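Technical note accompanying the year-one report. For the benefit of new consortium partners, we illustrate the data format agreed upon in the data management plan: each record pairs a sequence with a structure-token string. No post-processing was applied to the example shown here.
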Amino acid sequence: MKFSVASEIGELATVILHRPGREMNRLTPDNKDELLFDDVLWLERAQQDHDQFAAILKQRGVNILYLQDLLTDTIEVPAAREYLLEGALTPDHTGLTAAPTVRRWAEEAPAAVLAEVLIAGITKAELLEQLPGVSSMVMSSIDDEDLLLSPLPNHLFTRDSSSWIYDGVSVNTMRRTARRRETLNYRAIYRWHPLFANADFPLWNDGTLGREMSIEGGDIQIIGNGAVMIGVSERTCPQGVEHLAAKLFAGGIREVVAVRMHKSRAQMHLDTIMTMVDRGTFTKYAGAGMLPTVTLRPGDSPDEIEVRENAPELMHQVIAEALGLDEIVVLTTPQDSRSAAREQWDDGANSLAIAPGTIITYERNVNTNRYLTSKGIEVLTIPGSELGRGRGGPHCMSCPVLRNPVD
């Protein structure tokens, strides 16, 4: 099977989602900030809301690959299980004394059980249910409810740690410690899962670089015409953008437009302030304003990158030029600044296009949804009161792996 995402708006054919699971029940008022959530989730309602998201995609003919199912299938491959255990379940977690026993259990555990552990984590008490009597100094030093392996609740946002860019994939280098282990699961899936193991695609990034080279999928938008737009944000560093750009240029991609953003929690990624909704058309948060951009193109040799700084007032023109257009259409909802800030916080600009001019958004962003509809955009809505507590909308919660070409 050939995978390719050559735009943000081509008809969506296949996407990776992660239905929230037991990892969300690890969130507490004390650890939510460390795990990058604004609040704890009501899991059952979050699952219902996510199921509605999936239902709309299925109704529109989209094939859904669930991350936990992909990981389960991958673990059935012995080499993949070995790789995942070497990366995730080490003596650092259980202590040297208990490590061999825990490792033997993990080597023999059903794939579905191990996949859940790698996403939801495991507590001392849960491990002792599997291995009564196992001990180490580490085990004796912690309480039954303490986590030996931390959860990955941000796997909900499948795009951030895995981004398909034209005919290849970037397993992204995550900025925050709470998310870095997500890339381990994706690396294993893309290397060993039967769906990907025999597919021919370049790996633009393997996610193993240091955090000073971070780049996250919420900042990456494949705008088409051989161009990519990348936010330089709270989570994505200039070093990470240059590293990815060099890989993309070596693979034939012709241009990267880097957008220098304000670094804040509210605007952590480019897709929190701007997403593509139709041919040459974007929705944009009014408070983002016009931002400075940097145009990156291949240099005269493989080791060179041509860099051009652009003034803020040229932002839209620079994007239009990258698309080969005279101008782009930017849809900014007319509303007062407080309403705009609330809807931006609620992911009003974080739309997922499933075809040109057809997008999925959160239903609570009434003003933005009404305005986009008035401009001829088909807006399909889903509940987001629980799903949005991690600061992410439909664009964040989806990792497209195949889109049909746009005329």
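Partners are asked to follow this layout when depositing records. The CA atoms of residues 235 and 405 lie 30 Å apart.
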